[in-house]
Specification:
Length: 270
């Protein structure tokens, strides 16, 4: 494939904005009388760098050639009038709809951003919610029948086997090689009936009867119990801000629904 390149030195100068006489509107390359500007190149380069690419000669060259290829394909699409083809027109309409929707939501959240105070308040509420919550280190063996599960409990109590051996036959293949250990969990991570027996158990206790779930019968032992280690504000603030932003946007959409005159044609379902 033929690559059209300006000098690597010029690309580097443009990419690092070192030359005062180079303007964003300047043409970096012309493709069949269509100009690709410095601004277009810089924007595409910035997008690649944000995605993890290095700002080096190879990336700069690849970006420029991608812009050239894009323009060649766009020109061909226009020449063949593909935008009027029904399937393409539908895709273009859908893409435009998505772009405009994102623009509206971005504009709203720019004018109504989630504040640091809102993030801190949400963190404090979360910390209060988890203040008295405990975490449980649990291991289990999942079996098909209640009979098998009861027999395993007897064997564990009588020291005829242990979880390391028993887990090899567990239907939960993800934990077969670590003694059935599923790590630390808060009660809400479990099915309600599992949470009930786990939270009632003592440290090191083997649950006396199997616990049934849609997956089968669980033989459960609570290895350890500790207070929930609440992550710091610094660790959670990004996630909290994202959640609050989503909630604020959903509330905004709900308000638009309430203000709009929406009528469903019930006759279509008859």
């Amino acid at each position: 494939m033929k690559k059209i390149l300006c000098s690597m030195g010029l690309l580097a100068v443009i990419a690092t904005a070192q030359a005062a006489d180079i303007k964003p509107t300047d043409t970096i390359v012309t493709v069949d009388k269509v100009n690709i500007t410095v601004a277009q190149f810089q924007k595409a380069l910035d997008d690649n760098i944000k995605a993890g690419a290095k700002n080096d000669a190879a990336t700069q060259s690849a970006v420029l050639n991608d812009l050239i290829s894009q323009q060649l394909l766009l020109s061909l699409a226009k020449k063949e009038n593909l935008a009027t083809r029904p399937d393409v027109a539908t895709q273009l309409e859908n893409a435009q709809t998505q772009i405009l929707m994102r623009a509206v939501l971005n504009d709203y959240i720019t004018k109504n951003p989630v504040t640091d105070e809102e993030v801190k308040k949400a963190y404090d509420q979360l910390a209060q919610q988890y203040k008295d919550v405990k975490q449980y280190s649990v291991r289990h063996v999942l079996l098909k029948t209640e009979k098998e599960a009861n027999q395993l409990i007897k064997d564990l109590k009588r020291k005829r086997t242990n979880f390391d051996k028993a887990a090899k036959k567990s239907l939960d293949t993800a934990n077969q090689n670590n003694g059935g250990n599923i790590g630390w969990h808060v009660p809400t991570d479990f099915a309600p009936n599992v949470a009930k027996v786990v939270t009632a158990a003592k440290k090191g206790e083997l649950i006396a009867t199997p616990v049934e779930t849609p997956s089968g019968y669980h033989v459960i032992q609570v290895d350890n119990i500790r207070p929930f280690p609440m992550p710091s504000y610094e660790q959670l603030q990004g996630e909290i801000r994202t959640t609050l932003t989503r909630d604020k946007l959903n509330a905004y959409i709900d308000s638009l629904r309430k203000e709009a005159n929406i009528k469903v044609n019930e006759a279509l379902g008859k």
